Amino acid sequence: QVQLVESGGGLVQPGGSLRLSCEASRSIFSSYSMSWYRQAPGKRRELVGTISVGGTTNYADPVKGRFTISRNNAKNTVYLQMNRLQPDDTAVYYCKVLDAWGQGTQVTVSA
Question: Average pLDDT for consecutive 10-residue bins of the chain (111 residues)?
């Protein structure tokens, strides 16, 4: 079972940026697609975006044009670059590959 560890969350003002990282315990992102999810307080966990093995990315409508997923296979790490953050982006962000989830990292967007 692969272990996933997210990092990079924090408090940021509206309009700011953050980059989240998801590091896997073994080489896996070159073999399987990977997804980022988020869960806001009182809401269901929702898909943010996905990166395929070939590097194709897809994003949920609320983050299109603002968020970018990228991957560094040599570091077993996938990134979520988040720009022009809004208060509605406040959530715990999770990465997922196959059936494995990370522990989540909190992102808070507030003035």
Answer: 95 98 91 96 97 96 98 94 98 96 97 95
